[in-house]
Amino acid sequence: MNRLVQFATIAAFAAPALAQSAEWGQCGGQGWTGPTTCVAGTTCVFSNPYYSQCLPGTAVPTVTPTETPTPTPTSTPTTTAKPSSSSTATGTGGAAPTAVIGAATGPGLNKYAQAAGLKYFGSATDNPELTDQPYIAILSNTNEFGQITPGNSMKWDATEPTQNTFTFSGGDAILNLAKGNGQILRAHNLVWYSQLPSWVTSGSWTNATLTAAMTNHISNVAGHYKGEVYCWDAVNEPFNDDGTFRTDVFYNTIGQSYIATALQAARKADPNAKLYINDYNIEGPGAKSTAMINLVTSLKAQGVPIDGIGVQGHLIVGELPSGIEQNLAAFAALGVEVAITELDIRMTLPSTPALLAQQQKDYQTVVAACKAVSACVGITIWDYTDKYSWVPATFSGQGAACPWDANLGIKAAYNGILAGF
Ligand code: G3I
Fold first, then answer.
1. Is the pTM above the cut of 0.85?
2. Catalytic residue numbers, as ranges
């Protein structure tokens, strides 16, 4: 372990009458207005400028901000089996501890993910959320999150709103947050049918002109972030649910080869970024998963660079597909890494204790499936809190899909994730 340690004990002389943070609760950080002392048996430990936390014991090592390592953009996927389910983050064996429902943080999702052999547990975020200090404090806690995905700001409409004019301020802000925290960044995305500016969707293209515009976009965007990101969702959602190719502007103009061309351009722009194809409704076996297997098999046979399959994981409480682990293993057998890239598990509102308990089980099922497949490198939730979930705006009457509620309090789903690890 090459990390230096710092002990930051803030609680020692606290007046007993003041409110104290519970074990695992927040006790300091920029913008924090809550208690700065901890309950007996725990110590307020500095984690980063945004976050201090009440940890069990009297002195716990943490990484200081200046000692936070910059994430290595790439590393090879794990090929060895992950630790057995009896191992824990503390290495003591036995069942994982549970978080206090309603607390801001718990034993640590990223900590337990890494102890289970994953590279990271992460969350999506978006630029309007960056001014929400309590939200950022939790997102920046590397016990909880070792990885961030920008939910919107690296997409085509954000980065190239008019042809050949590039804006990176939104994406840069999220990359800088991740770098400052020592978190990996999954970059999202380069070629997708949605969130395209109208000059792309409404242009009069030929195969040659659209190929040139697409490769120019990729070389500029992936080139701007060269060396800074762990991976790119290079091609997003190329399939219909029946496994046929989605007939978007790229497919209709260029044909299926737009995928290989995009991957080759991305590799050229950032040779060290892992290149993923990312899609939804490929969690379990079925026509769409088979189509993904066929595509990746064909790309590999042609020598086209492809390093990973992203399984989004936008799921419904009580309706998980069966065979998730076997499906992830089938993807991994192609010689690529696998990641759960956009996990959330929604329900019809209002939430009830029964729905929240089922959601806890469902999160555990997905996490356990990833843990069981050695090539499954990480899990990203599509924002960690119901406060910023995309679900209610898209699915009327549904929501409560995230492991933290809209008040930034932990839900039972959190403990399902811990149990899955
Ligand atoms: O940028 C405009 C802003 O100018 C305007 O004021 C505002 C008013 O509503 O809308 C803003 O655009 C919104 C955009 O997010 C940025 O916030 C769009 O309306 C909204 O539809 C868009 O939603 C995003 C969605 O992708 C679009 O498909 C979600 O935030 C984002 O979480 C979601 O993410 C996708 C993944 O990229 C791919 N997989 C599915 C996933 C969920 O849909």
1. no
2. 342
